[in-house]
Amino acid sequence: MKVALFGYRRSGKTTLLQALSGLDRTGDVVAVPVPDRRLDALATDASAKKKTPVALEISDDPAGMPEGGGKAEFPESLRKAELVMIVLREFSDPSVPWHAEPDPARDYDAILTEMIVADLERIERRLERLAKEPNAKKPGTPDYLQATLFSRLKPELEAGKPISSAALDDSESAMVHSFQFLTDKPFVVVINTDEGKTEATEWEGSLAKQGVSVVRLCAVLERDLALMPEEERREFIEALGLEESARDRLVRAVYQTLDLVTFYTAGEKETRAWPLRKGATAWKAADTIHSDIARGFIRAEVVSYADFEALGSVKECYRQGKMRLEGKDYVVQDGDILHIRHKS
């Protein structure tokens, strides 16, 4: 799952990357584990030698949005990302020069406008090419369907609407995804603010109503927390009266925005958490583990996490008849513990 950081230069992207990774490094791609207490409990139950959480691959382009109205350059990592994390500055620091008084709403609108313009230019170039293709005039051909769809999206973009707001069927969505449009991607907005400023604004509430997750945090504080030893970090978070760090909340927000659920495989050799699109089947879960397992799929042994939590162990769930045998079309639920029976 690829996530790209984007925002203005000096908005705190690098600091946030350090906070997410727990590493003092810049301009890189890092794997960030998704916090998961259920995995911890399952690994303990299985006496697992190895515990593998789900990880997000997060990249940062050090260049960022140019200040002062320059044309934005969008890196390839941003186009390949499944989600864009937009970092907006709200913190006040005279030692870090800024192009204007911090205003997250203004900067978000500017970034979104640049993305819309980039998508519009890409669609216009594609329509120009399609105008020269004979097949684009033949109903039912891929070129015709593409020309029809892009001709419909063009005025929407010209009106300042992102592609994500368009009503598309599954085939149209697949076509749009293949072009890696920026405004087709889900966003998570990060308000990088001063320590202690936790109250959301009315503007942030309006974003939430549009389905955009917003997380407020102080990137400097979160970086310092991430670089602490685990026990010291827990004590510090408890002293602040918090259940978890803003960093962990942000990682969860990304995971939820990607519309993912987690299933588990539990064993002594390795206990592992796996990401899966909500609504996916047991066959797809098997394929996520290994394509050979999917090809030889027979049945899925399924234990719900709620039953595991109530009874205390996977073995006890089996003993008390809480294991279900499901076929390949079973829709995997968040927290399911799976063992796939397959032909080797």
Give an overview in words.
A hairpin with a 5-residue loop joins strand 8 and strand 9. The radius of gyration is 23 Å and the shape is flat. It has a domain at 279-342: Beta-grasp domain (Ubiquitin-like (UB roll), Roll), CATH 3.10.20.30. 41% of the residues lie in helices and 19% in strands. Helix 1 runs parallel beside helix 8 (219-226). It starts with a strand and ends with a strand. It is built from 14 helices and twelve strands. It is an alpha/beta fold and 344 residues long. Strands 2-4-1-5-6-7 form a six-stranded mixed sheet, with helices on both faces. Strands 3-9-8 form a three-stranded mixed sheet, with helices on both faces. The protein has helices spanning 13-21, 37-46, 76-80, 104-130, 142-158, 170-177, 202-209, 219-226, 230-239, 246-257, 282-289, 291-295, 305-311, 314-319; strands at 2-7, 29-33, 51-52, 55-60, 83-89, 187-192, 213-217, 260-265, 271-277, 297-303, 324-326, 337-342.
Describe the SSE topology.
Elements: E1 2-7, H1 13-21, E2 29-33, H2 37-46, E3 51-52, E4 55-60, H3 76-80, E5 83-89, H4 104-130, H5 142-158, H6 170-177, E6 187-192, H7 202-209, E7 213-217, H8 219-226, H9 230-239, H10 246-257, E8 260-265, E9 271-277, H11 282-289, H12 291-295, E10 297-303, H13 305-311, H14 314-319, E11 324-326, E12 337-342
Parallel strand pairs: 1-4, 1-5, 3-9, 5-6, 6-7
Antiparallel strand pairs: 2-4, 8-9, 10-11, 10-12
Helix pairs in contact: 1-8, 4-5
